[in-house]
Automatic annotation (TrEMBL):
Subcellular compartments: Cytoplasm
Source species of the chain: Cyprinus carpio (Common carp)
Full protein name: ATP-dependent 6-phosphofructokinase
Regulation acting on activity, per entry: Allosterically activated by ADP, AMP, or fructose 2,6-bisphosphate, and allosterically inhibited by ATP or citrate.
Binding site for beta-D-fructose 2,6-bisphosphate: 463, 520-524, 558, 565-567, 621, 647, 653-656, 725
The family this protein is said to belong to: Belongs to the phosphofructokinase type A (PFKA) family. ATP-dependent PFK group I subfamily. Eukaryotic two domain clade "E" sub-subfamily.
A biological-process GO annotation: canonical glycolysis
Length: 771
């Protein structure tokens, strides 16, 4: 039983038929290090061994490939244990001059042929990947030279005639075209946000202005997203140099914010920031400017290599693990004619793209910037970058009141259900955009209950459904003349919206545009792959599991049983298990019985005989009525007697708390801004066309594979299991086999969903508006 949707055997292709027997894969990390590279190496090694191939570490990047000897070592299953939670790259990376020479590449080719390696998995930035491609193009020529000089036989040259290359982009700058996120970007954002949050408290105390320099020589992604996530006053990035006269504008905005009783200013600068004439804008320049024009107490902080350090975030571990497995599949499927490709994520979907197309596009961005075609550079960066930039422009729009458009519309915003980290970011963004569009905004206290009493202007969130208050809610909507509703919350919010829609026939006041933005740690909302708050919860689980694993390594031969939240939804247990390197994760969606429990215990008993003497088992709180956390703990304790001992840990409400992760802040900000823009559009339509088409005016805005989509809640009813409060189909179930493979279980893995080779699509204007 693999927990994969049952489309029948014919439409599926399982990778059982993809054997790696007789193949050798070399894995290397090259260029600047990035958090999550180790997770990628671990996934490549384990997946490679799983399919029967030999996998070799190539230490110190291309330098190790050129030097050979002990730098190229065969990897074993255990040799990648405990790597997942370590930042940087364990197998080392070096800038390599030798590989740039023909002579160096010739030596590298010899070292690979001697070990029978014709498959390379390269984890690095665009320079490393370009080098790999050149190597592939020269390969047959290099082999001919080696045959002529008698270093290898004709036969060896025949057997190793084709070199296959798959790349994964590891770079904290997120500067590679064709990929939404590169390995390490999310972790670097974590470091930046931790620092900004810390600086804000001291700036607040002293009424200071802080100028922060973040990494990104040619790409402003880190600066842009961290500015979005922390609400910075001003951001400077290479792709969008400020217009002439920006100095006065910036100082005006800073002083305006101080006049609004804000005690601090934060200015974020990418290290590659330039002005319209391609002259660098440095942090010192900005500091002098602020001191000269405004006399504010100003400090500069340069974050530097802190951003590359630290443990990888949950997102980076999952991204790297998914990509590592995908890379091995791509190598197994490659034929001599297949171009070198990179595996990457687009939205939430694994894709494969021709390496050189991505590299060319990345170089085009730089060229456009050098030639001052900045708007084009932003477009070439891709839709994710452009979306962030547009959202930032939308939110920083700060005009004097008189210049704002006035609409006669009143929009109410409310939070419903349990708290989720990132809700505040969503509220802030929705309110700002609403005010920019000229609406009057009402903040509703205490969710639907507060709505019925007519309280407003404080954020609380209550688990009362509107049904019993419908008459009063309608009355309040009439009193305050509410023309639209934005609901931020989890499953309760979804049920609430359905109830409000159902009551429209009785209450004309409810015939207004309503939109819901999913925010819940459980990630159990139909119509959306992800919800605000789930990423922060995953990081909380991953951090705790890291600590627990560390304590278990100290004790030796210990297994931890950890209970996670999520209601009946196994998202946190499964994806948390993948990020923490768990041996098993019990969830409601994949039924298990005593035989499964027994095989898990046996599996752990075997594991204790190896050098990895610890185990980690996750259990979703509602995965089974009778196999409780205590039951599983007692079963493992009894069965493991003399082999391992057990401990149990219930994570509880720490999963709902904590500072929101950069992903949740950014996701909350973007999705709420989009929801508010939809409300404005609907309000205009309503007043032009009247209210005849009502179904599509109560929607849920969700992330589906590659895009954010508005879906009428009424249509989502069929996709919902209302008893267990989960969607009937959940995309992350396809990650379950991945977790099992990486924990050394034999399982069936459906690759029909794995990325097919695509080409980079130049986005046309109409596509961009659809995103």
């Amino acid at each position: 039983h693999s927990g994969v949707d049952s489309k029948g055997p014919d439409t599926k292709k399982f990778f059982e038929n993809l054997s790696g027997a007789g193949k050798s894969i070399g894995v290397l990390t090259s260029g600047g290090d990035a958090q999550g590279m180790n997770a990628a190496v671990r996934a490549v090694v384990r997946m490679g061994i799983y399919v029967g191939a030999k996998v070799y570490f190539i230490h110190e990047g291309y330098q190790g490939m050129v030097d050979g000897g002990d730098n190229i070592k065969e990897a074993s299953w255990e040799s990648v244990s405990s790597m997942l939670q370590v930042g940087g790259t364990v197998i080392g990376s070096a800038r390599c001059k030798d590989f740039r020479t023909h002579e160096g590449r010739l030596r590298a080719a010899l070292n690979l042929v001697q070990r029978g390696i014709t498959n390379l998995c390269v984890i690095g930035g665009d320079g490393s990947l370009t080098g790999a491609n050149l190597f592939r193009e020269e390969w047959s020529g290099l082999l001919d030279e080696l045959v002529q000089s008698g270093q290898i036989s004709e036969e060896a040259a025949q057997t190793h005639s084709a070199l296959h290359i798959v790349g994964m982009v590891g770079s904290i700058d997120n500067d590679f075209c064709g990929t939404d996120m590169t390995i390490g970007t999310d972790s670097a954002l974590h470091r930046i946000i931790e620092v900004v949050d810390a600086i804000m408290t001291t700036a607040q105390s002293h009424q200071r202005t802080f100028v922060l320099e973040v990494m990104g020589r040619h790409c402003g992604y880190l600066a842009l997203v961290s500015a979005l996530a922390c609400g910075a006053d001003w951001v400077l990035i290479p792709e969008m140099p400020p217009k002439d006269g920006w100095e006065e504008q910036m100082c005006h905005k800073l002083s305006e914010n101080r006049a609004d009783k804000k005690r601090l200013n934060i200015i974020i600068v990418a290290e590659g920031a330039i002005d319209q004439n391609n002259k660098p804008i440095t942090t010192e320049l900005i500091k002098d400017l602020v001191v000269r024009c405004l006399g504010f107490d100003t400090r500069v902080t340069i974050l530097g290599h802190v951003q590359r350090g630290g443990t990888p975030s949950a997102f980076d571990r999952i991204l790297a693990s998914r990509m590592g497995v995908e890379a091995v599949l791509a190598l197994l499927e490659a034929s001599p004619g297949t171009p070198a490709c990179v595996v990457s994520l687009c939205g939430n979907q694994a894709v494969r793209l021709p390496l050189m197309e991505c590299v060319q596009m990345t170089q085009e961005v730089q060229k456009a910037m050098d030639e001052k075609r900045f708007e084009e550079a932003v477009k070439l960066r891709g839709r994710s970058f452009e979306n962030n930039l547009n959202t930032y422009k939308l939110l920083s729009h700060h005009k004097i009141d008189a210049e704002l458009p006035r609409s006669s519309f009143n929009v109410a915003v409310l939070n419903v259900g349990a708290p989720a980290a990132g809700m505040n970011a969503a509220v802030r963004s929705a309110v700002r955009v609403g005010i920019t569009e000229g609406h009057t905004l009402f903040a509703v206290n205490d969710g639907f209950e507060g709505f019925s009493k007519g309280q407003d202007f404080f954020w609380y969130s209550f688990r009362t459904l509107p049904a019993k208050h419908i008459d009063k809610i309608a009355e309040q909507m009439r009193i305050h003349n509410i023309n639209a509703l934005l609901v931020i919350g989890g499953f309760e919010a979804y049920l609430g919206l359905l109830e409000l829609q159902a009551a429209r026939s009785k209450h004309a006041e409810l015939c207004v545009p309503m939109v819901m933005v999913p925010a819940t740690v459980s990630n159990n909302i139909p119509g959306s792959d992800l919800s605000i708050g789930a990423d922060t919860a995953l990081n909380a689980i991953t951090d705790t599991c890291d600590r627990i694993k560390q304590s278990a390594s100290g004790t030796k031969r210990r297994v931890f049983i950890i209970e996670t939240m999520g209601g009946y939804c196994g998202y946190l247990a499964t994806v948390g298990g993948l990020a923490a390197g768990a041996d098993a994760a019990y969830i409601y969606e994949e039924p298990f019985d005593i035989r499964d429990l027994q095989s898990n215990v046996e599996h752990l008993t075997e594991k204790m005989k190896t050098s990895i003497q610890r185990g980690l088992v996750l259990r979703n709180e509602n995965c089974s009525e009778n196999y409780t956390t205590d039951f599983i703990y007692q079963l493992y304790s009894e069965e493991g007697k003399g082999v391992f001992d057990c401990r149990k840990n219930v994570l509880g409400h720490m999963q709902q708390g904590g500072a929101p992760s950069p992903f949740d802040r950014n996701f909350g900000t973007k999705i709420a801004a989009k929801a508010m823009q939809w409300i404005s559009k609907k309000l205009k339509e309503f007043y032009r066309k009247g209210k005849e088409k009502l179904d599509d005016s109560a929607c849920l805005l969700g992330m589906r594979r590659r895009a954010l989509v508005f879906q009428p809640v009424i249509q989502l009813k069929d996709e919902t299991d209302f008893v267990h409060r989960i969607p009937k189909e959940q995309w992350w179930l396809r990650l379950r086999p991945l977790m099992k493979i990486l924990a050394k279980y034999k399982t069936s893995y459906d690759v029909s969903d794995s990325g097919q080779l695509e080409h980079i699509v130049r986005l046309r204007a109409k596509d961009i508006s659809a995103i």
